[in-house]
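// run 5 | inverse folding | seed 20
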């Protein structure tokens, strides 16, 4: 079984890298003034040629290699009912499209895989820098750079005992008022703004921040699947905003994380859950 998982992880890394490389190419074209076909999928939900190109590369390759696996991807509504199969790939080809359009470099490619509803493999690649985070259940979490090939180091989330000096990474474009309540409850003074759900989670994994909370709806299973696999193997916790595990086995068409998410190390988890629940008005 271990060998099978290693193979699945290898393919996940391959397709995530291919998608990220295509995004990087289109990003450079965009920076040079070329048209990237920016349009609105729905209100305040843009999509670009980079989203669609990366999506095609990733999903077509996965479907050709694993024809019996389901694929759930943000960019194809026809896949949004695919959450009940034994193996489900959950893809966000370009997480942080608004930041891509703003040309601030804060966007990532995410490829996750669940088995019987459990996040088992996760890969997050940042096209702008070449940062790669990846994990497979039971095998640890790793960090590397595309420029260094397959060279990588194991990553563990650091314990944060000093509640007086917590750092929180916050959204540039989706700041809910409950974030301010959460910050006040824990008396957090250090805020780090960033785009992309996956990038903010990566900052906590890498030790650049201690907490990330998204205390509102809006994130989807493809935003959390890859991240949860990596956070778990790095020794951290990724839960819903109410402190409950996120369910990946759902009825058809149900893929929103209604209570958002929170990410932190286990030793401050109780405090973070308390503050998040308080911000939601649940206690």
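// decoded
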């Amino acid at each position: 079984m271990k060998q099978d998982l290693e193979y699945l992880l290898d393919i996940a890394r391959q397709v995530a890298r291919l998608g990220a490389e295509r995004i990087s190419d289109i990003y450079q074209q965009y920076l040079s003034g070329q048209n990237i076909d920016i349009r609105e999928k729905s209100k305040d939900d843009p999509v670009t040629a980079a989203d669609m190109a990366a999506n095609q590369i990733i999903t077509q390759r996965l479907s050709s290699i694993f024809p019996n696996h389901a694929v759930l991807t943000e960019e194809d509504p026809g896949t949004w009912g695919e959450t009940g199969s034994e193996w489900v790939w959950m893809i966000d080809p370009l997480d942080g499209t608004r930041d891509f359009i703003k040309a601030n470099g804060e966007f990532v490619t995410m490829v996750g895989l669940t088995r019987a509803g459990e996040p088992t493999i996760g890969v997050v690649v940042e096209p702008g820098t070449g940062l790669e985070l990846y994990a497979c259940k039971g095998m640890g979490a790793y960090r590397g750079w595309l420029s260094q090939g397959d060279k990588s180091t194991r990553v563990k989330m650091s314990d944060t005992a000093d509640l007086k000096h917590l750092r929180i990474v916050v959204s540039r474009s989706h700041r809910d008022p409950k974030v301010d309540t959460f910050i006040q409850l824990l008396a957090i003074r250090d805020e780090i703004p960033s785009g992309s759900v996956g990038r903010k989670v990566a900052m906590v994994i890498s030790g650049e921040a201690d907490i990330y909370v998204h205390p509102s709806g809006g994130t989807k299973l493809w935003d959390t699947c890859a991240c949860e696999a990596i956070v778990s193997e790095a020794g951290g916790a990724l839960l819903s905003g109410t402190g409950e595990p996120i369910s990946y086995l759902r009825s058809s068409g149900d893929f929103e994380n209604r209570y958002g998410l929170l990410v932190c190390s286990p030793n401050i988890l109780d405090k973070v859950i308390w503050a998040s629940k308080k911000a939601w008005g649940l206690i």
